[in-house]
Amino acid sequence: NVEDSKQFFKRKIDFLTKQIEKIQPALQEKHGMKQAVIEVMNVKIQQLQQNQQSAPMIGPAKA
User: Fold this and answer.
1) Does the CA dihedral 23-24-26-31 come out positive or negative?
2) What are the C-alpha distances in Å from 13 to residues 21, 52, 56?
């Protein structure tokens, strides 16, 4: 009946809420690590681009 359905979905919502609360810290940590990796990659890309611009071409240039 309708009351049983309401109770079922209330339990389902409670379960999902608890699961979200469990994984949220791990998700935040992974997001932080991803941001750190992106930052390091951007620094390395900038360094590589600067090295390529400042270093003269070695060997014949290919067209």
Assistant:
1) positive
2) 12, 55, 63
Which 8-state DSSP code applies to residue 45?
Answer: H
CA dihedral 51, 53, 57, 62 (to 10 degrees): 120
What end-to-end distance do the CA atoms of the chain give, in Å? 76
Is residue 55 very low, low, confident or very high in pLDDT (cuts 50, 70, 90)?
confident
Q: How confident is the model at residue 54 (pLDDT cuts 50, 70, 90)?
A: confident
Q: What is the rounded CA–CA span in Å between residue 23 and residue 13?
A: 16
**Planar angle of CA 19, 29, 11, nearest 5 degrees:** 5
Reported pTM:
0.60
Give me the count of residues in the chain: 63
